[in-house]
Amino acid sequence: MENSKFFTFVTEKNPNFSLGDDGYLKDFFSRPEAKLNADETKVWHSIDGFISNRDIEIRHPSALKHLVKFHDKGWCEFIEPHFPIARKSVLVVEPHMDDAAFSVGGLMLARRNECRFTILSMTGVSNYTEGMGFSTPMLFPTTTVSRLRNAESALMARMIGGEHLSFSMPDAPLRYADLNKNSSWSIEWFIQHSLAIEAFIKHRASLDERCIIEKLIADFIEKNKYEEVWLPMGLGWHSDHELTRDAWLNMLGQCAILNSSNVYLYNDVPYINEYPLHCEQIIDAFNKHDGCLHSVEYEISSAMEEKKRIVGIYRSQFSPLDILPRVEYAARSKSSSFYQETLHRIVRMPSKINFLNFYSRAQNVKLLEGNAEKILTKYHKSKRVRLFVGMPFGRTSEDLLLILQAFPDANVEVRVASNAWDEVKDYVHPRIFLGKVSSKLNFASLLFAALLSPWKGPVLVIVGERARRIMNAICRRKVFNDSHFIAADTASDLATVLLGRQERGER
């Protein structure tokens, strides 16, 4: 870097790092990075995110080498002080406070002198950090984590000459806690509910949640106008990504955004690595009913190294050693000779949107729907239903209510595996009878006894894909008849089928 250009930059600390009284620079998780000497300490304290590197050098003649060291270590970033005034206004919507950088960071960097980017995070309240995945989990107050994550995003936005905004919507783990009336997290509670939290994250969001977000969107776009809007495709299993996509697509027609803005979808990174077929599924679903998406791949090779830097800002969420290879892999072209990012322009919205067609497990749901239709109709007036829960619901109260509505005259006997018990144990309803099953062997024994029983009332099973496939294989061998049981991979799949029947007015 030329010294003349370097001196015009402003240096800002990565908010994940702080200098302790003992002289050690530590990350957010109190892991020491290095012990700073006296000169380094003076320079570190001079960094305020406003004064130029030249001014720091004037105060401390040895500052240059120290600032370069801090930058090379990722402890701080160099920020250009000025950008062109006349730039195109672009809104980039992200589910979480990192998705835009991971997914379209290269394009934003490449176009920062032509476009003024506003990054809008849909979930601006979070307590999630990388520390939750440590062998001994580390938990921090929601206010502390939210402040840090917003600071990370603000730093990233400064590096592209833009701004960061966020809604006060909690992310999925916090919404799980709210749904289960838990206001204070403890390590013990988190460990007990970790599988249920994961199930909640992978469960389709409720219509109530979507309505809340749509109201936030309507209020926002009434006050703000942009020449372009970039939205996530909602790839993969994360409900926050799906919720963001569905809410914005539902609002496009209602708020006439397409009349005033060019709207694009971008590939969610790193989910595109694991779910490339989901991208094709969404494009196909979009192009039905007279819709039209036009996909263009843009080379970002010249911005790739800078993209790695802005991705590295989010150290509260990922170790750079973990996330950078995944981001780089997602950007590699098919020939691996250059890097690229893709935007899918919405040329025309479909005349009708069925959000199930965008769902990552749409094929599984449609198969389940076909198998379940006759059973749900035949046993609608049954007085007794048996439900075997081999994995957490994620949304116990909502899903059990759907089952009660599907069988309005029935008592529901629920046998719950131990790994799902903590989520359901406090649920109370006069027609629900809960029972914990202590071991996998006992659970399997009770399940097969119910399936082999001469009683042919409805049996609902939520056991995961592997166990469901085993059950289907046994059925093909005629060990028991599948005419009275419904086997779902997940509670989300079953809930989607039941909700779909409700919306169509079926019994």
Walkthrough of the structure:
The chain is an alpha/beta fold and 507 residues long. It has 3 domains: 3-79; 88-358, LmbE-like (Rossmann fold); 362-503, Rossmann fold. It is 46% helix and 18% strand. It is built from 21 helices and 17 strands. It has helices spanning 3-8, 38-46, 53-59, 63-72, 99-110, 142-159, 172-179, 187-202, 207-223, 239-254, 257-260, 271-274, 276-287, 304-311, 320-331, 362-378, 396-406, 418-424, 440-452, 465-476, 491-503; strands at 10-13, 18-19, 24-26, 32-35, 76-79, 88-94, 115-121, 163-166, 228-232, 262-266, 292-299, 340-348, 384-389, 411-417, 432-437, 459-462, 485-488. The strands form 4 sheets. Strands 8-7-6-9-10-12-11 form a 7-stranded mixed β-sheet. Strand 16, helix 20 and strand 17 form a beta-alpha-beta unit. Helix 7 packs across helix 8, helix 8 (187-202) packs across helix 18 (418-424) and helix 16 (362-378) packs across helix 21 (491-503). It is globular. The relative contact order is 0.09.
